[in-house]
Design a protein that fits this description.
- By secondary structure, this protein is α/β, with parallel strands linked by helices.
- The chain has 2 domains: 30-276 and 478-497, 3-Layer(aba) Sandwich (Aldehyde Dehydrogenase, Chain A, domain 1), CATH 3.40.605.10; 278-468, Aldehyde Dehydrogenase, Chain A, domain 2 (3-Layer(aba) Sandwich), CATH 3.40.309.10.
- Helices cover 38% and strands 17% of the residues.
- It is built from 16 helices and 19 strands.
- The chain has helices at 3-10, 75-90, 98-114, 116-127, 131-152, 156-159, 180-193, 208-219, 234-242, 255-265, 290-302, 322-333, 354-370, 401-404, 420-428, 443-452; strands spanning 41-43, 46-48, 55-60, 65-71, 163-167, 170-174, 197-201, 227-229, 248-252, 271-275, 281-284, 314-318, 373-375, 391-394, 411-417, 435-439, 457-460, 479-480, 493-497.
- The strands form 5 sheets. Strands 13-14-15-12-11-16-17 form a 7-stranded mixed β-sheet, sandwiched between helices. It has a 6-stranded mixed β-sheet with strand order 8-7-6-9-10-18, with helices on both faces.
- Strand 1 and strand 2 (46-48) form a beta hairpin.
- Helix 11 crosses helix 12 (322-333).
- Bound molecules: 1,4-dihydronicotinamide adenine dinucleotide and magnesium ion.
- 1,4-dihydronicotinamide adenine dinucleotide (NAI) is lined by residues 174-176, 178, 201, 203-204, 233-234, 237-238, 241, 252-254, 257, 260-261, 275-277, 309, 356, 359, 406, 408.
Amino acid sequence: MTKDKREIARRPDKAPMATAWDYAPAPEARDIVKVEERYGLFIGGTFVEPASGERYTTIDPAREEPLAEVAQAGKADVDRAVRAARDAFANGWSNLRPSERAKYLFRIARLLQERSREFAVLESLNGGKPIRESRDVDIPLAAAHFFYYAGWADKLEYAFPNRKPRPVGVAGQIIPWNFPLLMLAWKIAPALAAGNTVVLKPAETTPLSALLFCDVLRQAELPPGVVNIVTGDGRTGAELVSHQGVDKIAFTGSTEVGKAIQRTLAGTGKRLTLELGGKAANIIFDDAPLDQAVEGIVNGIYFNQGHVCCAGSRLLVQESIYETVIAKLKRRMATLRVGDPLDKNTDVGAINSKQQLEKISALVQSGIDEGAQIYQPPCKLPERGYWFVPTVFTNVAQSYRIAQEEIFGPVLSVLTFRTPDEAIEKANNTPYGLSAGVWTEKGSRILAMAKGLRAGVVWANTYNRFDPASPFGGYKESGFGREGGRHGLEPYVVLEDA
Ligand code: NAI
Ligand code: MG
């Protein structure tokens, strides 16, 4: 540690001292994307006024400024959207030649690439995530998902050998606010590839990229009604879930709402996949490449402000390297730049909403109250907007709320272990089971750990890495069903004997 850094660490409440290495502002131009004053609902290939007559304002969480007026779809609106999807299903989409369906998906993928800067800026404006992440992760991965499933559209018989796959029908899809366009792609691409039609509800705080996506659908000349977008809050989602005309529900969001949806659908025969929360263990063994591991820890928990269901929010460090890892981690945390999401140098952007900021603050307070030790690097936050300083807790007991509950913010809880068995036991000691990370030089240990960890995804010597060809999903309270890969097609096909 340099002398300056030690000085800063001793004065954590003070703003960092200006150094010769400060970054100059590097803002991305926001006028590349045109935000309308108000939006309707995208039903049957056009924007229509909501029958509910209700609207709300969607904001920029980094500035607390309004961006647009968005429709709050009611029962009649959801009904109209489901009917449009049903008509489109019956009138051609479901029996279109698969290679023709693929062409539309390829077009959508290419258009997303062409308009990627627009989408990246909009995603950061409406959601608060750093432009570096929306530009380099969210938008390219969204396009990659459409490319990937475009490839499957005319090869479904090979995905399911000796079976005859046919589409399920109308899919109702409800997505969260942490990866708005990417979650849209995860949901829509496999559904369309398999010949289904869609009614999708974006999250209430981040509707704008889904609404811009409607313009991509227009450019791609997708037949009207194949994709319908209805905006609104949980009430709109609940209408979609209980609508008789929907054959399948796909949901990503909180475990609480996932359970409620499962109760509503019990006995209806509707299909359901749930991708819910997580409390993943990121496990560091003493033979791991430590500097690389520290990068993985930082990426695991501070990526996207920690608004990540598979975030590595519980760090499990082998006892013998504990001091070293924590010292390296604190030093690295002090270099994270928190601030304007549209600045290309920003590492940690704005918290998505006031509500989420309150949840994070309350859980962090519980950690302090229960006796954990908090560390936050010195950090000057903007005056307006929703922010939370990257945080790490040490002296954490497994029973603390910060070790058990999903915080969904930039907050890491550190635990220690001695043996691989103890690491597995502690890692699995959670109601969730979405993901885990293992850092070690030994290949055999990676395999043994992956076998013992009850998690849908286990990353080895990396973290938060995604690929459309790789299935993603959870165990236990993290949900069921898989998205991505060939597995991701399964929920969208009925398999008949060939
Ligand atoms: P949420 O589960 O309420 O929202 C997710 C989506 O579900 C949104 O589109 C919302 O409008 C919709 N929704 C809400 N109530 C519904 C209902 N009764 N029926 C149908 N749809 C409904 O999540 P929220 O309140 O935004 O976040 C709370 C916590 O949930 C977060 O702090 C985080 O821990 C967790 N979460 C997990 C996510 C994940 O990726 N697994 C994503 C978002 C939140
Ligand atoms: Mg909620």
